[in-house]
């Protein structure tokens, strides 16, 4: 199993090195990993001038899976857009054709009091947000800022082809068939033509999956319903930008964005695995970041790219156990719990593994 490791910026190196320790522990139990690191994001700009250097492109193309930390930092905010760390992330998603982004939003029962939401609203929450990741306004052309009538205008293009919608819809229906046979597609068809097409195509694809109950929801309502009654959802599917926003919102249902892993897959099962949170420059290098989202991302890697369900479950149940043993990083800590740093949290996971 060849894994490219891209630690990135901010807290990225700290959390990724903990996740690699988990893989190494599995390796000492007989699994075989070939792990190689490369630069992505701001650290890559510093070293080479490009956020997605050629050496990284080569490595991720050869690898079976990619483990990513996070990219970005305040010092890069004034760089030209093509040199921004985020461009490295977008380029790698596009380059590997990782169109299907799976973001499980699972509440560990031990954390039901760590969320800002009432425990009864979120208890046993288990949602899967499927976000289209290589299209939409993120990549649409034309885009830019230009002079127009004596002032500057900024513009982007929200665009989806039928084919792009169809392939993500198939992924969503297949995933939904294996869960509770419920799929909610989120759009803004009352205003945007692009998402009218989204709704039309998703409705068409639904005919291939008569066992799945499809519903549609406008994105503003979905944002509200996620807070009002999140347990009405099982699998949600939506476009790139709505998925970006809704998944951050949904993460807080679970107590902390520091708990959410993600998998970005292409049509061959190749995947990039990363926590959904950012590089958190304010806490970088302090050994306080929560490594669990990244550790849980390795579980998704074992499940989706390597078909190692048992190893994936081992990691997930170890995480559950450390929470039951009251270990908490500061983002999820509460009175009476044992506050630990990034490395100690991983130590606890390894003890349980
Ligand atoms: C995410 C992030 C990225 C995105 C940023 C860092 C470009 O917010 O993965 O959700 O917008 O997709
Ligand atoms: Mg985001």
Q: Could you list some keywords that capture this structure?
A:
single chain; 353 residues; alpha/beta; Isopropylmalate Dehydrogenase; 2 domains; two-stranded antiparallel ribbon; binds magnesium ion
Describe this entry's structure for a reader.
- The protein has 353 residues and is α/β, with parallel strands linked by helices.
- The protein folds into 2 domains: 203 residues, Isopropylmalate Dehydrogenase (3-Layer(aba) Sandwich), CATH 3.40.718.10; 139 residues, Isopropylmalate Dehydrogenase.
- The protein is built from 12 helices and 14 strands.
- The strands form 3 sheets. The protein has a 10-stranded mixed sheet, sandwiched between helices. The protein has a two-stranded antiparallel ribbon with strand order 6-7. Strands 13-14 form a two-stranded parallel sheet.
- Strand 11 and strand 12 form a beta hairpin.
Largest sheet, if any? 10 strands, mixed
Uncertain residue segments: none
Strand residue percentage: 15-25%
Number of helices: 12
Structural domain count: 2
> What's the number of extended β-strand segments?
14
> What small ligands are held by the chains?
3-isopropylmalic acid, magnesium ion
Please state how the strands of the largest beta sheet are arranged side by side: 2-1-3-12-11-4-5-10-8-9
Broad CATH class of the largest domain: Alpha Beta
Radius of gyration: 20 Å
- Average residue pLDDT: 96
Q: Output the helix-strand order.
A: EHEHHEHEHEEEHEHEHEHEEHHEEH
Could you tell me the CATH topology label of the largest domain: Isopropylmalate Dehydrogenase
């Amino acid at each position: 199993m060849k894994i490219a490791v891209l630690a990135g910026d901010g807290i990225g190196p700290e959390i990724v090195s903990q996740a690699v320790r988990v893989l190494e522990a599995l390796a000492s139990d007989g699994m075989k990993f070939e792990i190689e690191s490369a630069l992505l994001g701001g650290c890559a700009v510093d070293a080479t001038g490009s956020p997605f250097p050629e050496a990284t492109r080569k490595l991720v193309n050869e690898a079976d899976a990619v483990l990513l930390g996070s990219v970005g930092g305040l010092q890069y905010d004034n760089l030209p857009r093509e040199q921004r760390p985020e461009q490295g992330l977008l380029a790698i998603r596009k380059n590997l054709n990782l169109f299907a982004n799976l973001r499980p939003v699972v509440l560990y029962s031990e954390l039901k009091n760590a969320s800002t939401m009432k425990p009864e609203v979120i208890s046993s929450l288990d949602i899967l947000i499927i976000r289209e990741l290589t299209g939409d306004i993120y990549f649409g052309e034309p885009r830019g800022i230009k002079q127009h009538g004596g002032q500057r205008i900024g513009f982007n293009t929200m665009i989806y082809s039928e084919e792009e919608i169809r392939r993500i819809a198939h992924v969503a229906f297949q995933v939904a068939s294996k869960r509770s046979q419920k799929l909610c597609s989120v759009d803004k068809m009352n205003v945007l033509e692009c998402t009218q097409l989204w709704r039309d195509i998703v409705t068409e694809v639904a005919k291939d999956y008569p066992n799945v109950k499809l519903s549609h929801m406008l994105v503003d309502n979905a944002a509200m319903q996620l807070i009002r009654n999140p347990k009405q959802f099982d699998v949600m599917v939506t476009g790139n930008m709505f998925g970006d926003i809704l998944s951050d919102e949904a993460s807080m249902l679970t107590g902390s964005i520091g708990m959410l892993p993600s998998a970005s897959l292409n049509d061959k099962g190749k995947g990039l695995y990363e926590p959904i949170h950012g590089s958190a420059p304010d806490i970088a290098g302090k050994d306080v970041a929560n490594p669990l989202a990244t550790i849980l991302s390795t579980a998704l890697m074992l499940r989706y790219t390597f078909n190692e369900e048992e190893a994936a479950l081992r990691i997930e149940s170890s995480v559950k156990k450390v929470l039951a043993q009251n270990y908490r990083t500061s983002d999820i800590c509460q009175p009476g719990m044992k506050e630990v740093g990034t490395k100690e949290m991983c130590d606890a996971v390894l003890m349980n593994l």
